[in-house]
Amino acid sequence: MSNSYTSNPILNRLPEHLKQFIKPQNYDDYSAINQAVWRYVMRKNVDFLTQVAHKSYLDGLKQTGISIDSIPNMYGMNRILKDIGWAAVAVDGFIPPNAFMEFQAYNVLVIASDIRQLEHIEYTPAPDIIHEGAGHAPIIANPEYAEYLRRFGEIGCKAISSAKDYELYEAVRHLSIIKEAPNSKESDIASAEKKVEDLQKNMGEPSEMALIRNLHWWTVEYGLIGTLENPKIYGAGLLSSIGESAWCMTDEVKKLPYNIDATFKDFDITKPQPQLFVTPDFAHLSLILEEFANTMSLRKGGLSGVNKLIHSQALGTIELSTGIQISGVFSNVIAHDGKPIYIQTTGKTALAYREKELVGHGTETHLKGFGSPIGKLKGINLAIEDMSPRDLSAYNIYEEQLVTLEFEGGIKVSGEIITGKRNLQGKIILISLNNCTVTHNDTILFKPEWGIYDMAVGKDIVSAFSGPADNNSFDLITHVPSSQTIRVKKSKELLNLEALYHQVRDYRNGTNKTISRTKVLEELIENHPNDWLLPVELYELAFIGNESKLCKSIINHLETIKQNKPEIGHLIDDGLGIVENLGHYEEEGRNNILD
């Protein structure tokens, strides 16, 4: 177990390959500006979302220990989340989709611990703690939704990706990082955006991962619930975006009933969504998920499942009708009459039964790949797996017997039977042969000099899915992201501004009441004339203290900022509006100040 985070019983269940993505939260790295951004977004969200969010949201904020005034500490969150059977971990931005979903399958929320810049306070394409902590965490307090999220992770992590999916993931990760990083060049951002756009236009046939990612986007991230006429918000992307949560409620955004059609509706992560899907209730989400899962190779197997694995160029697993599972990088399949009759992996391969590696059949044994026929023997109605010991003996499938097994479709296996393995039901699942030759018509697939031939037994491929059957069969601690979150050295000007924010936060928390807020305002006006959030915080303190002179000075300064930067005028007005709604004073309090 890594020492970089505090564990608990839920996190202890995580497999090692998921733990590699966890990083320490480093709570002390959050500046006072970061804390002010969190506080502004949360106060504005709660103020607005009271009317438009699903009732589980506000209840969940309390239940999951999310504070409005401070960025949540992961340790504190975990202490409270365990009561509803969940946990949370910090990660660095986007992680691979399969890993993200597998965390969910273990009831673990993945939280990007960085927080958006003040310049991106309304929306950021990069995952951040506002999106993850304030968006995802509260809704899981609803048991029906929590089970949907867990089940989605369980199914989603088995979805097969294409090679292009991995390329797109890296491109989107890079774009989100440089868009959120200070001092990024516009030309670099434009170049990264073009790469994402070009990839999106040339993805070809959508993979299972691409399709289930659409479902994730239109539910978990951007879902609405209720009726088309009066929907409520539950999607984390909307709950955490103070701009889009309001816009999505307007008639500008088309509302559609949520059904399986959402699978084929693509999205653009860099732009507001032109349409959203409305589910009548959380239980309906699980019905659509099961409907989609029935289309996946996880449940259908067959030739298409193997071909998807070959196309992915990544580690995957097929399961045969006997339950034997073959995990590796699939490189070839021979088909006959629309059915697979021979499969081939390349490189390290492992065999398993019920997600547990078969003794003696790990990657050390099958270091250079594995090939096996699939199907029934030619001219024999009884499949090998259905043969009794007497049947097997009658067909010479018996210890030390020389045998030639001819399968439907032209695969021939000739050699000396060594032994076999059976499953718990007594069906034979693996036959080992010595001096073995395997052919398909005139093509040699295995030669005697290559050693012992292990033949998997099964008449059908019943399942095909991403990843290994047994995680312990492979070294999965290998993820190295192509790009890391950018850390820029802070300028003296920024450090000075952070110090001012810190003084005001200390004053509000009661840590230091000797600070002169008038001097803070004067220094802001002189050295940081375009910063708007700290003046709003100063105004709140002055308003609560009924300090009309200081309030007037702050309002005048904010009006100047609005004239210089009209694009942030609504943010200032919204911040002042939140202060007005505190209820400490009559509505005319601010009007008197403005006169």
UniProtKB/TrEMBL annotation:
Q: What is its EC number?
A: 1.14.16.-
Q: Which SUPFAM superfamilies match?
A: Aromatic aminoacid monoxygenases, catalytic and oligomerization domains (SSF56534)
The UniProt entry, under InterPro entries, shows: ArAA_hydroxylase, ArAA_hydroxylase_sf, Aro-AA_hydroxylase_C_sf, Aromatic-AA_hydroxylase_C
**Which GO terms of the molecular function aspect are on file?**
oxidoreductase activity
What family does this belong to?
Belongs to the biopterin-dependent aromatic amino acid hydroxylase family.
Cofactor(s) the protein requires to work: Fe(2+)
Q: What is this protein called?
A: Aromatic amino acid hydroxylase
**Which positions fall inside the Biopterin-dependent aromatic amino acid hydroxylase family profile domain?**
1-259
User: Per its UniProt entry, what is the enzyme's top EC class, as one word?
Assistant: oxidoreductase
Q: Which UniProt keywords apply?
A: Iron, Metal-binding, Monooxygenase, Oxidoreductase
Looking up CDD domains in the UniProt record yields: arom_aa_hydroxylase (cd00361)
